[in-house]
Amino acid sequence: MSEPTPSEMESRREAPPAFWRLLLAPWVYVGSPSKAAACMAKARWPAAGVACFLPVLAFAATIIFLAVWDATVELAWRDPHYTAVERSFSEVWQDWHKHGMGRVELLFAFLVALVPVLSGFVAWLLLPSVHRSGSVWRSYALAFRGAAAGAGLLTGLTFSVGAIGVFLSNEHVRETVLGHGHYVTPSLAPLVVGMGAFAFLVFWVSRSIGSLGDKVPAVEVPPRCEGCGYDLTHRPTSGLCPECGLSVESSLAPGVRRPGCRWENGKRGVLTWLSTVRGVIFTPSRFYGALRLRSPMDAPRAFTRWNYGLIGAGTVPFAAALLMASRNADLLLSMTLFTMFLVLIVAWSLHRLFGALAMSLWVVEGTLPDYGWAGKVIAYESAYLWAFCLYNGVLSAALTVNDHWLTDWFEALTGLKYGPFGLMIEELAMLGPNAALLLLWPWRYYLADRAIRWNNY
Ligand SMILES: [Zn+2]
């Protein structure tokens, strides 16, 4: 498939979708992030704004509806036992408006304002998926539309998961009362399903913005010296770079300085994945120095999927083993799944946050001719998440076996019960190395930037 030229992109933009189709797009294309994003990206500005805004109103209304529904059945302590206070929807609504307009309307306005702010933040996080060159603002606006295309899914998930949650919560109140006022532990299922829905939304929006990025054409870059970036357009291939003396041939001959990585060149399997992870984590300069930056994003994306898939799959048996002591099958299953979604969401947030920070700095400094290369580096940096997983995995396993061995050991060694800042030594063991790993990340991006800045392949 050939890349569309900028003029083709323009002509596509000139054929906006019909207004009714645009309005329905966030709902109808819930199953296809790329179609929803394409429809939103092609629309002209005021129409696109309306199409994005309607689901936001629906989202805020859904939350208010769920809050009112939840308040129709409430648990109250009437000595000597619990009792249920049941009200109709209109009674709740009237009670909430005893003092005129107020909290409900404020909550509605807050939610309506919150969604665009969050979309704006997600668009920034995923800006590296769409920005290649030219106006950053235009790329940002494109990413924002990709994020806004998810407003229909957000509302749908909020409604369905919220309805299950409120229904179970109200049933739980009635059960407690029927059980003669003995408090019953509520089910964690809605919380777990909610986390899963949130993880799916994140995945969906990544796909929708990523699909918009695939249509942005690559930038034509003149041949460069890989050593110093000197423009080699009119240099004979047999000569040396006049700036740094590197042979021109070594920069321009395919496969000499950038043979690429095994993940992209050979068959993808567990061993290739392992060696790629090792290469990215331990020798970033060498890995990015050999990486080909102009090839399609399929392989790096597959690498990211492998990492997230294996992190998620690895968390399940690990968390289940650590939570074994709970001795309650329901609780064990809920907490295990909850941990898996939490780990995935935190991993994704850190991965994209540091990627977006690096990207923003590079854009401000103007270091790369084509920022699509940054997207490729960020995809491979997903391997670095394993450093966090391994450290925290080992630490939480060690603390599950014996939760105070670190304090005991520290006390025996120093005679102190607390470390600096009055923190428990377990807290320091959790915070310190994680902070150090995070601080290493900008340094890794610095190395990557230097390794990819001048490339010809
Ligand atoms: Zn040079």
Would you give an account of this structure?
This protein is an all-alpha fold. The protein is built from 19 helices and two strands. It has helices at residues 6-13, 19-28, 33-42, 45-71, 89-96, 103-125, 136-148, 151-178, 189-214, 248-252, 262-265, 270-282, 284-290, 298-323, 329-365, 372-380, 385-401, 405-414, 425-452, and strands at residues 73-78, 81-86. It binds zinc ion. Zinc ion (ZN) binds next to loops.
Topology summary:
Blueprint: H1 6-13, H2 19-28, H3 33-42, H4 45-71, E1 73-78, E2 81-86, H5 89-96, H6 103-125, H7 136-148, H8 151-178, H9 189-214, H10 248-252, H11 262-265, H12 270-282, H13 284-290, H14 298-323, H15 329-365, H16 372-380, H17 385-401, H18 405-414, H19 425-452
The protein binds zinc ion.
Q: What are the segments in which pLDDT stays under 50 over at least 5 consecutive residues?
A: none
Strand order of the largest sheet: 1-2
Assign the structural class, choosing from mainly alpha, mainly beta, alpha/beta, alpha+beta, or little secondary structure: mainly alpha
List SSEs in N-to-C order. Answer: HHHHEEHHHHHHHHHHHHHHH
**Overall pLDDT level:** 88
| Largest sheet: number of strands, sense, barrel closure | 2 strands, antiparallel
Q: Give the amount of beta strand, in percent.
A: under 5%
Can you list the ligands bound to this structure?
zinc ion
Helix content: 55-70%
Radius of gyration, CA atoms, in whole angstroms:
27 Å
In DSSP terms (H or I, runs of 4 or more residues), the helix count works out at 19
N-C termini distance: 19 Å
Number of strands: 2
Which outline best applies? globular
